[in-house]
């Protein structure tokens, strides 16, 4: 794909922004300069999906609003129709003008991992990461696996969603990133809420993203909203610094190979004032869904399963968020369940 060189930019790589104040509860943050172009993409999404693109539209080359190269973090150049939605992204090609690496969505998701496109090289990830790449676990996750978390104090999907929405109230109208999205059970809720200008579902597991798409396509209303599926490494997020407003990580941090690197990346990509919300199991949870007994049936099908997950105390989670530059830490604890939140300072 032939791409035009991006003009030299005078924009600073710093996250520095004018001083802003959080809005009063029940109100949204003032619209930021330049943001209407992203909102306009939502109105045009249905037309993009339904109408064939002219050659002129298909050959538009622009710098992406959010996506960045996972190698050098340079904003990606995009060739194709605009918009952060499944039809537009599927018809687009992405390329880094700095390191010349190309990315496509030839599968139903946009692969923005460092190893995207490699032919010979491969990496073996920790067993707890590989477990969720299994087609079986991806299929079962929303069909009984996730419901098992209630035994440890998780309040259930509807209540968890509403709790997260309360934390995200100050950034209503912004871009939300649902990391380690799994089968997309919260992704779909965020997208259908109408609270956000765009929702990006991100996971390292190809099969989780495929399962996510299977659920999305069963709901026609989700095919024409600003919703994207991206494969990426949580420790190497393919987004420009200070580019997203909200990040959600549901029942995820205990599975990450390096939680500290991941939260540092989350802090990097959040805009000033942006909010991070995560849920996990507190340390030494009893009857957790990753116990030996819970995993015994899976062993018979997928082989040995390593159960060495990262469990934390509440103090450790707060310390981790603060060490990565997040402020205004708060939490909600129910037995072994914890929802915690931190904010990128202005």
UniProtKB/TrEMBL annotation:
The keyword Flavoprotein does not apply. CDD domains: AdoMet_MTases. The keyword Signal does not apply. One of its GO terms (molecular function) is S-adenosylmethionine-dependent methyltransferase activity. Signal peptide: none annotated. It is found in: Plastid, Chloroplast, Plastoglobule. One of its GO terms (biological process) is methylation. It comes from the Eukaryota. GO terms for cellular component: plastoglobule. Pfam families: Methyltransf_11. Keywords: Chloroplast, Methyltransferase, Plastid, Transferase, Transit peptide. Residues 177-277 form the Methyltransferase type domain. PANTHER family: METHYLTRANSFERASE, OS06G0646000 PROTEIN. This is Methyltransferase type 11 domain-containing protein. It comes from Zea mays. The lineage of its organism: Eukaryota, Viridiplantae, Streptophyta, Embryophyta, Tracheophyta.
